[in-house]
Write a structure and sequence with these properties.
This is Lipoprotein. Keywords: Signal. By secondary structure, the protein is α+β, with helices and mostly antiparallel strands. It has one domain. Helix content is about 15%, strand content about 40%. It is built from one helix and eight strands, in the order αββββββββ. A six-stranded antiparallel sheet has the order 1-2-8-7-6-3, with no helix packed on it. The protein is globular. About 10% of the residues have low confidence.
């Protein structure tokens, strides 16, 4: 009986300690992003229907936060996700990201550049 009680009490304590020790692996981004042409774009949930040419493809996906983001990177979309120009909209303002047959607007973030 004592063994069972020790195990019942030890398991939740062990799980709690293990959880706390692994929290450094959890990453928290303020928002979802893609990078293109050495600029950072914040993903919106606004759908876009007027699409122009394909302008790039995500080359690197990661959820690990970093102050240095590579070009053609996303913390939301997997490698291979396509980026597009929005018809009659400058890429200096917005681009589109293809996701499951839909296109979502990504807004350029002023003051955020990535290293070349």
């Amino acid at each position: 009986m004592k063994k069972a009680l020790v195990i019942i009490l030890a398991v939740p304590i062990f799980l709690g300690l293990w959880s706390c020790s692994n929290q450094h692996n959890l990453q928290s981004w303020a928002f979802d992003v893609v990078t293109w042409n050495h600029e950072v774009y914040k993903i919106t949930n606004e759908a876009v229907t007027e699409i122009d040419d394909e302008i790039g493809t995500i080359k690197k996906y990661s959820t690990n936060e970093s102050s240095e983001l590579p070009n053609l990177f996303s913390n939301k979309y997997n490698k291979g996700t396509k980026l597009f120009k929005i018809k009659n909209v400058e890429t200096n303002d917005y681009i589109a990201v293809q996701d499951d047959g839909l296109y979502y607007k990504a807004e350029k973030m002023e003051g955020m550049k990535i290293s070349r």
